[in-house]
Amino acid sequence: MQSWVPFIPESASTQSGKVDALYFYLSGVTIFFTLLIALVIIFFVIRYRRRSPHEVPRPIAGSHKLELLWSVIPFLIAMSFFVWGAQIFFANSKPPKNALEVYVVGKQWMWKFQHTTGQREINELHVPVGRKIKLIMTTEDVIHDVFIPAFRIKADVVPGKYTTEWFEATKPGRYHLFCAEYCGMNHSGMGGWVVVMEPTEFDNWLSGNVGAQSAATSGKQLFQTLGCASCHGTSGEGGRGPALLGVFNSQVQLASGQTVRADESYIRESILNPQAKIVAGYGPIMPTFQGVVNEEQMVQLIAYIKSMGSNAAGAAVAPSAQGSPKPPVREMPK
Ligand code: CUA
Questions:
Q1: d(CA 205, ligand 1 centre) in Å
Q2: Which of 151, 127, 193 is nearest to 15 (CA)?
Q3: Interval between CA 122 and ligand 1 midpoint (Å)
Q4: Which secondary structure element, helix H or strand E, spans residue 134, and what is its range?
Q5: Does the pLDDT value for residue 2 go beyond 60?
Q6: Pocket-forming residues, ligand 1, beta carbon under 6 Å
Q7: Using CA atoms, how far apart are residues 113 and 209, in angstroms rounded to an integer?
C-alpha cells in the first residue's frame, strides 16, 4: 500500500502521480545543489587556504561570462518550478465539467457530505472509482480544510463562500481525510474516510441508502415553505423577483450595469444578502434569509435551482426525486 519512499502517502488519484513527479523534481534539484555547494565549499577551503602568514591574495577582476551563467541557469531552473507547478495548480483547481458533484459542509468538528441524489454521510464519503468527483464545500462556523493525502488535494473551506476541489480515484480502498486548518479543540480529531468503490458496488451502496430524497427535491420543498415561489415564478412568467428557470450558470444582467455568472456563490449571496447584486429590472425588495437558511438547506436550495437550469423542461434531475417532475407555479398574490 505504502510508497517505496518513506513518508510519501499512497498514490490513488489521477493527479497524485503528477504532484509526486513535481515533488521529486523539486527534491532532486534541492539535493543536487545542496551537495554541489557543500562540495565546492570544501574544495575551495582546501585549495585556497592560506599557505603562509603573510600571504596576499591575487586581485580578481571579475568575469561577465561566469556571472551571466550563474544568473541564467538558476533563473531557468526557477522558471521550470513555476511553469510546472502552475500547470498542476490550474489542472487541480479547475474542476472538470462532467464531474459528479458532492456537497461538503464542515462544522466543528465533523464533515457532512451530501450527494445530489440525497444520500447524506458524516465523516465518510463513498465515491465510485474512475469517476471525476467535484467537492463543493463550505462551513457552518470557522475555516476548515479538506485534505486527502492519497489524492494529493487540499483546499480550505471558508465561511460565507463555496470553494471546490476535485479528484478521480484510481483504485478502490479507504483513504484518510483530514482537516488541515487548525479549527479549535478537536481539530486533530476532525477526520474521516473516503471510501472508493467499484462502480457497481457504489450503485448498490447508493440504492441501499435511498430513504432520503434528492437534494433538489428537498430544496424544492424549502422553496415552497420559505415562500420563495411567491416572488420567483418558476416557469418564467413575471414576478416580483427574477424567474429562476434556466438561470443557473447563465450570465445575469445587474441593475448596476455589470453582469455576473449565476454560479453557486452568486445564488448563495443573493439568498443571504439580496441587495448585494440586484438583477436589472427588479427592485431591492427581497428580505435576507441570513439565519433562516442553514448551510445544508442552502445546498439543497442551490441544488433545486440547478435542477431548473440543467434542463429547460424543468424535469427533476435526480432519479430518486419524488412527485411531479415539473415545479409547480404559484400564482402571484395580488
Ligand atoms: Cu476543522 Cu481543523
A1: 28
A2: 151
A3: 14
A4: strand 132-139
A5: no
A6: 106, 109, 144, 179, 181-183, 187, 190
A7: 13
**What number of helices (H) and strands (E) belong to the chain?**
6, 12
Determine which helix (DSSP H) or strand (DSSP E) holds 145, and give its type and residue range. Answer: strand 144-148
Q: What is the mean pLDDT of the chain?
A: 83
Protein residue with its CA nearest to atom 1 in ligand 1? 144
pLDDT of amino acid 334: 37
Which atom belonging to ligand 1 lies closest to the Cα atom of 109?
1
The pLDDT tens digits of the residues spanning 145-160 come to 999 999 999 999 998 8
Q: How far is the CA of 300 from the centre of ligand 1 (A)?
A: 24
- Of 179-193, 221-235, 253-267, the range with the lowest mean pLDDT is 221-235
pTM higher than 0.85: no
Q: Which of 103, 115, 131, 126 is nearest to 201 (CA)?
A: 126
At 10 the pLDDT is: 87
How many angstroms separate the CA atoms of 312 and 328, rounded? 14
Query: Which pLDDT score is estimated for 76?
Result: 96
Q: Residue 181's closest CA among 256, 80, 253, 109?
A: 109
CB 259 within 8 A of CB 252: yes
Q: How far is CA 2 from the centre of its chain?
A: 26
Q: What span, in angstroms and rounded, lies between the C-alpha atoms of 187 and 124?
A: 17
For ligand 1, the distance from its centroid to the CA atom of residue 191, given in whole angstroms, is: 8
With a cut of 60, say whether residue 323 has pLDDT above it: no
What digits encode the pLDDT tens for the residues 60-103? 888 999 999 999 999 999 999 999 999 999 988 888 888 999 99
CB-CB contact of 118 with 137 (8 Å): no
In this structure, what C-alpha cell is assigned to residue 276?
Answer: 448585494
Q: What is the mean pLDDT of residues 198-217?
A: 80
How many whole angstroms separate alpha carbon 73 and alpha carbon 141?
48
SS3 126: strand
Block residue for cell numbers 443557473: 248
